Amino acid sequence: MRTPTRHTVRTVQVLCVTVTAALVATGCGRSADSGAGKDAPAKISSGKATGKVVMWSMGDTDKDLASLAKKFEQQNPGVKVQITPVPWASAHDKLTTTIAGGTTPDLSVIGTTWMAEMAGMNGFQATPASFKSSDFYPGQWGTTKYKDTSYGVPLIANTMVVYYRTDLTAKAGIKGAPAGDWTGYLKDLKAIQATAGKQNPKLRNASTWNIGFNSWIFWLPMVWQQGGDIYDAQSKKFTFDSPEVAKALEYYASIPQQGLAPTDKTDPLPAFESGRNAVYTEGPAVGGGLHKDLPALNGKWKTMPLPYSKQPAGFAGGSDLAVFKNAKNPDAAWKFVKFLTEPANLAAYAKATGNIPPSPTAWDEAQLSSDENMKAFDEQLKVSKAPPAITTWQQVADAIDSELEKLSLGKATVAQVQQALQSKATSIGTGR
Fold first, then answer.
1. DSSP-derived pairing of the beta strands 231-232 and 237-238
2. Each residue of 338-392: pLDDT tens digit?
3. What is the DSSP annotation of 1-12?
């Protein structure tokens, strides 16, 4: 398996529970439509849960999830919840193997970019109608869908915002946050770059950069911000050849090609922490890590939503809960999912783990916006979207990463990358 990310261990842990570990999906599986996407919603009986519920949780043992399970057992004396941790490195293959063999547990945490692939394998039950999409951020609910049918319920949200060093931006004459529009944002990055070695002796580049693995996460929102997309679900055709994609590639390339960010694939977080870079785009794990590990930087960094040109947009990642088609105790499993995704429990879980909840009500209950730096995440979650719900998504994502690296290094033009992506994605296809 490839190294999941270049960030700190804490970032790896959170992103693996949320976005990036889900990207080891290979898109393998049957090519024929298995009927998934046409399923009727599962049913949940009235009364308390009974029997044994076997759940897989990705990553290390999750004591906070176990604590909620104990609370569920107390409310349902006739049920026993068994939670088994599964390493992210082996989770994808383990899940697809058990789905194919019909030997699944009752439910599992599923990385959002795996949902379409495994739903396409006819692996999950359709979400009961008692779960309402309106209870979640639209993009987070979108991660559960395959062929317009929901096959899970959001548990953990993830999206990206811009972190900026206020001590470094102030020396560039920037009052408050860098500009929120792309033209102004690039202008501010240039102003920050001009202070390197002068007002800011440690500064090397205005911004950090994500190149290679997972760079699609940072680029795809730029397409949505242009009002475009890379896939048309109605025609089932890729649209990398659109003007909106071309403009997004231009914006993406403008930062490294103007020397505003490094392209050496080193971990960008230490550079941000030390002041070698002033601006850093990442998820909520970074803020938690900075508060915990570098309290001396408190008051020297803030967050802002992603800059955009036409409309705000961001990436909706995270983890969902799914109940398997071959669950032995599906009724109790869905009752446990219902319990875990109640706003009070989502709020408690988010506060305990440092993750962010996929529900606006849970967000408010956790009082996350009392932290000024969390407000940007709330704004971003409101406008974030899920990537295309196709079973071959990982193969397409790998192609995007490869072409974006060429673009960042100046080894291909926008037109060449656009043509290559359209050709590669069309060749890969959409799978089931």
1. antiparallel
2. 999 999 999 999 999 999 999 999 999 999 999 999 999 999 999 999 999 999 9
3. ---S-SS-HHHH
Tokens of 144: 């559960």
CA distances 320 to 153, 157, 158, 389, Å, are 5, 9, 11, 14
Q: Where are the beta strands (DSSP E) in 105-246?
A: 107-111, 145-146, 149-150, 153-158, 161-165, 205-207, 231-232, 237-238
Is the torsion defined by CA of 325, 154, 59, 333 positive or negative?
A: negative
Delineate the domains of the chain, giving CATH numbers in brackets. Answer: 9-159+317-385 (3.40.190.10), 161-315+392-428 (3.40.190.10)
Listed in order, strand segments (DSSP E) in 277-386 are: 277-282, 301-304, 314-315, 317-323, 384-385
Q: Are 314 and 385 in contact (CB under 8 A)?
A: yes
pLDDT digits (tens, 9 = 90+) for 265-297: 889 999 999 999 999 999 999 998 998 899 999
Its pTM stands at 0.90
**Per-residue pLDDT at 229 exceeds 80:** yes
Pairing of strands 107-111, 51-58: parallel
**What region does 180 belong to: left with phi over 0, alpha with psi -120 to 50, or beta?**
alpha
CA–CA dist 432, 54 (Å, integer): 28
106-151, pLDDT tens digit by residue? 999 999 999 999 999 999 999 999 999 999 999 999 999 999 999 9
Q: Quick check: 261 pLDDT over 50?
A: yes
Report the relative pairing of strands 79-86 and 51-58 from DSSP bridges: parallel
Rounded Cα gap, residues 80 and 73, in angstroms: 6
Average pLDDT over residues 170-179: 96
Q: Judge contact between 127 and 334, C-beta under 8 A.
A: no
State the distance between the two ends of the chain, measured CA to CA, in whole angstroms.
25
Sign of the dihedral through C-alpha 239, 21, 56, 45: negative
Q: Cα separations (Å) of 251 from 25, 50, 320?
A: 28, 54, 32
Other beta carbons less than 10 A from residue 427's beta carbon: 10
| CA–CA dist 315, 335 (Å, integer) | 29
Q: What is the pLDDT of residue 279?
A: 97
- Under 8 Å CB-to-CB from 153, ≥6 apart: which residues? 127, 131, 136, 144, 320, 321, 337, 341
Gap between the Cα atoms of 270 and 6, Å rounded: 11
Other C-beta atoms closer than 10 Å to the C-beta of 82 total 12
Is there a contact between 129 and 39 (Cβ–Cβ < 8 Å)? no
